[in-house]
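User: I'm preparing a small set of examples for a lab meeting where we compare how different chains pack in three dimensions. I only have the primary sequence for this one, and I'd like the structure in token form so I can line it up with the others. Please keep the answer compact; I'll paste it straight into my notes.
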Amino acid sequence: MCGHNMFRQRQWSHVPVTTSNAICIFLSCINIFVLLFLCIVSNTTETAATTVKLPGNVSVPAVITFGDSIVDTGNNNNNFKTLARCNFLPYGKDLKGGMPTGRFSNGKVPSDLLVEAFGIKELLPAYLDPTLQPEDLLTGVVIAAGGAGYDPLTAQLAGVASLSDQLKQFQEYVEKLKGIAGEERTNFIVANCLIFVVAGSNDISNTYFLSGARKLEYDVPSYTDFMLNYASQFVKDLYGLGARRIGVLNVPPIGCVPSQRTVGGGMLRECDDKQNQASQLFNFKLSAEMDGLNKNLPNSRVVYIDIYNPLLDLIINPTKYGFEVVNKGCCGSGIIEVTKLCNQFQPAGTCSDDSKYVFWDSYHPTESAFKIIVQQVLDKYANRFF
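Assistant: Understood. Below is the structure token output for the 386-residue chain.
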């Protein structure tokens, strides 16, 4: 190789430079150039496509997500205490290789789409994935757990890691990162990475309305205050651990997801207005609180992110986005199947074209819907982090 021969210049000095020698040296260098070029091309094709243009002096070394099943990529796979698992077909059927990974959709979820948009990597791995490699930590992980919420009782009822547990995992992650990259680089990664928090849906739909576990203690206004206190403290805790760029997504129109239409939408399976009104009330309070934290936490970029309206627009105006079905999921009958009920052995199977469906199962959107929502989020909010 050229590099190897350069280190042997003293030996070369004793070799006459003939025409044949010169040709060999030239061809050797050409081969090395071709190999390097192919390596670059290969690496480029494996790297996620960048859709967000960063300012010249800005770096986003990693993406980390906390919260629930919207961004979970497999942290519950080996948690046999919970039903909030989906590491089986037909989940993940549209991922590369068609293998289930624990993502609550047919393909990629927002964690993947976000890290891909910043050109970091194609998929964001689960922190508890047993195959996770040390170098994976450098560019970010998912710490979210399907079934979690701001209310600690929500995770307890689901048998999954609460946000408090996820915060402890983040502290563990930071210590591992220090062992790999050193303290200075770790501090840079934590301060400059993008952190997204996605929670609240399970609190409203499951803990408050479905199970009624909090109804004796709280009405809707006081329960949303209760949720807000935990949301605010979680962001403050992240800030205390060095995080500076924190995006907090609001609660979607949870009353319009297929399962909640079935449970609370009457014979016509319309959107459950009570759940949507609770979501809107919480979102109003969350927006004000996050704006306040952004102003009061020095050098922070705390960004409130609206996904309520983007998802609602897909539901109200599906044909504008190329969708046809909004009130049923692609999996099974589409009206109740989620997690264990959405499996490859059910007689109903899955729909023939999931790209026409806003929802994959009775609770979670399809990859097609996620892509539209995430792109709208990036278009509106990406520049607010820098």
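A couple of notes for your slides: DSSP finds 13 helices and six strands in the chain. The longest strand covers residues 63-67.

User: Perfect, thanks.
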